[in-house]
Amino acid sequence: MASLTIRQLDERLKKLLRLRAARSGRSVEDEVRTILRAAADEDGGEAAEPISPPASKSPRRPAIAPGVKRVLLIVGGGIAAYKSLDLIRRLKERGIAVRCILTKAAEHFVTPLSAGALVGEKVFTDLFDPAGEFDVGHIRLARETDLIVVAPATADLMAKMAGGHANDLATAVLLATDARILLAPAMNPRMWSNKATQRNLAQLVADGVALVGPNEGEMAESGERGTGRMAEPLEIAAAAEKLLSAGAERPLAGKRLLVTSGPTHEPIDPVRYIANRSSGKQGHAIAAAAAAAGADVTLVSGPVNLPDPAGVTVIKVETAREMLQAVERALPVDVAIFAAAVADWRVANEGSQKIKKKAGQATPDLTLTENPDILSTIAHRKSQRPRLVIGFAAETENVAANAKDKLARKGCDWILANDVSPQTGIMGGDSNTIQLVTAKGIEPWPPQTKQDVAAMLIARIAAEIARS
Ligand SMILES: Cc1cc2nc3c(=O)[nH]c(=O)nc-3n(C[C@H](O)[C@H](O)[C@H](O)COP(=O)(O)O)c2cc1C
């Protein structure tokens, strides 16, 4: 066989080789061996063995260029595991290097062969696999990654994580890592709402684990509907990308936030009540965004038709008086955001029995009395006043002027004013146009989704807290 030395190569090629070798942390000779081995593999693989360095049994992971982000995808044993194959593609098309672990249960749903073909290297399945352990090992799997994505995150995996178990490869790696962890839970709605799962979830969120989903919809296996569907691969890939990006810090980690949301129902009698058109979408979006930013969030919600945001402690109330009580019990907090549309008045002479319609009798006289002003009560507290008290002003005319007046009257720090005239579609709709009113002036925000308003508000809060 003809001999070839690196010195004989032209300068440009030598320079390129040196660069590749430096990036992958190999000697130039080893880099050449790697390239030849890959070329031989593409050609059928027969030539691979003789030129493999004899001591190395490492699975052939393509060298990762500097700056390329690495995700370790842990696939749990749920029906949604098939979607994780697509997730591998979605992550890779974003230039993310992917490694994959399948739990034993996951192997009932997808095979290491199909996952490995998509990842482009060996898939890891066994904690006690001697070859795997000597080659890469669970500690290296845990460390050589920028983010661990668990999708689907089964109820069982979440329970083990919350309890600090490490009795298989997935949980051992999850316990040994110091990388961020993103969970995409997927399970039957009853499993999801079960107190044990919610307890584990609260623990995981408090431990700093990030979440994407679960979404509401039809369950693949049972035809049931509810919250528990795994987020779609594109959503998970976007959430992973966000966590991997520079702004991935959790600016509200260690901070306690209180959010109120939804309408209140003020009883007329045991079956009738006065309500308003608030959907709770804005308040719930704020609670979710605050939790995603790492805050410990309590959401006090009036009656709404929305799923509880993941990782948030939700206290459900009906009336303004109950809301005030729940808010006061949740103190102390660093920031309080009052997005609920609290009824200004309630019926003073609430009937203890259903008010009967009787022929010939006058219509009932409903006398109204003022409800407690929650925003003002909290903003004027002498003790345990949150550092930042933020209110919403839902106006139908003179939005900015009324909001400025409200800021002064209520003693709060910021007001988010919005025009809720029916033609704006804001009340109950999915978008919002805000004017942020502070002591410094009025700042109009662009029309955007309620999620984007929430993200913008949370970013402003984080900046304000960092300043003060
Ligand atoms: C057909 C089938 C579908 C399942 N789907 C789910 C699911 O979507 N979510 C879940 O939490 N568990 C699901 N399970 C139960 C898990 O497979 C079981 O709890 C297993 O121990 C999870 O193991 P792992 O967390 O190590 O992957 C399913 C079981 C079967 C048989």
Give the spatial strand order of the biggest sheet.
Answer: 12-11-8-13-16-17-19-20
Measured as a percent range, the helix fraction is 25-40%
CATH topology of the largest domain: Rossmann fold
Supply the CATH superfamily name of the largest domain.
Answer: CoaB-like
Distance between the termini: 72 Å
Q: What is the tally of beta strands?
A: 21
Number of helices: 17
List of distinct ligands in this structure: flavin mononucleotide
Report on the biggest sheet. 8 strands, mixed
Overall morphology: elongated
In CATH terms, what is the architecture of the largest domain? 3-Layer(aba) Sandwich
Uncertain spans, ≥5 residues at pLDDT below 50?
45-59
| Coarse structural class | alpha/beta
Radius of gyration: 28 Å
β-sheet strand percentage = 15-25%
| CATH top level label of the largest domain | Alpha Beta
pLDDT averaged residue by residue: 86
Quaternary structure state of the chains depicted: single chain
Task: Write up what this structure looks like.
- The protein is α/β, with parallel strands linked by helices.
- It folds into 2 domains: 70-248, Rossmann fold (3-Layer(aba) Sandwich); 256-347 and 366-467, Rossmann fold (3-Layer(aba) Sandwich).
- It has helices at residues 11-24, 28-42, 48-51, 81-92, 112-119, 130-135, 137-143, 155-163, 169-176, 189-193, 195-206, 233-244, 281-292, 320-330, 374-379, 399-410, 450-467, and strands spanning 70-75, 97-102, 147-153, 180-185, 210-211, 215-218, 225-229, 256-261, 266-267, 273-274, 296-301, 313-316, 335-338, 345-347, 368-370, 388-395, 414-419, 431-432, 434-438, 441-444, 448-449.
- An 8-stranded mixed sheet has the order 12-11-8-13-16-17-19-20, sandwiched between helices.
- A hairpin with a 6-residue loop joins β6 and β7 (225-229).
- α4 runs parallel beside α5 and α8 (155-163) crosses α11.
- The structure holds flavin mononucleotide (FMN).
- Residues 76-80, 103, 105-106, 152, 154-157, 186-187, 191, 221 line the site of flavin mononucleotide.
- Flavin mononucleotide (FMN) is lined by residues 76-80, 103, 105-106, 152, 154-157, 186-187, 191, 221.
